[in-house]
Amino acid sequence: MSSSSDPIVRFHQLTGHGRAPMRAERSACGTLPMRAVRYCEALTSATSFGWWLFAPIDLELLWDGTEVFWRCEQAPEWMPLSPSAQLPDYAAEFDAVAPEALRGCSPPFLTALPEPGTVQLWTGLIAQTAPDWHLLVRAPANMPPVGGICLFEGIVETDRWFGPLFTNMRLTRSHTPIRLRADYPLVQVQPVARHSYSSDTLDRMQLSAGLGDDDWEAYRCSVVEPNSRPNRAFGGYATAARKGRHQCTRGQPTGAA
Fold first, then answer.
1. DSSP letter, residue 220
2. How far apart are CA 32 and CA 36, in angstroms?
3. Which domains occur in the chain, in start order?
4. pLDDT band for position 255 (50/70/90)?
5. Which strand (E) or helix (H) includes residue 36?
């Protein structure tokens, strides 16, 4: 995937279950306040940065403080994760299409990790990114979290790692079922360039004591001047950001967000 016309990421959906990945959208499935959607470009840009992934099926998890159990519509009785479980009927589905040498190698759907109350869930996907692009796997940005779980964040080098795309979660509630819905975003994956989180990049930080003349002028344009116009239109920052420029650099002060 080297041509500029090639996708930055390609998702391979291995199961017949669940929703396909979708581009994250600015309103966070309608959960953001309308004022934020209209005027806060910083918030909506972060919300729509990446793609939403979903659990392959509806399921419930239960942690008794020691052991994790799970159930789903196809298997309604509580079953222990000891230590892993397949999607219902998926092992046969995998073997039906896999080369003979790979039959019996289907990835697990759920795995109980060694740490108490932690679970690994397979999204049903394999992701492949363009060279030197990786995926940050995290909880959906600015969306109400699924109650009872906390997702770990991780950066996967999906330009070289061609394997199941998992997410790891900590169960934060015990003795009460935790429901994961197949129609609600569970994970957000965001493209990051390899160099953007390298030490060479992250070590290039500078701390300045105070502001210079150019800095004070920039502060005046961004904060002071807009607030001197109480009747200014809302969303000046959002308008300028959507146009791909900061109006103050052209001698036209912008309004605050």
1. I
2. 7
3. 9-194 (2.70.40.10), 213-250 (no CATH)
4. very low
5. helix 34-39
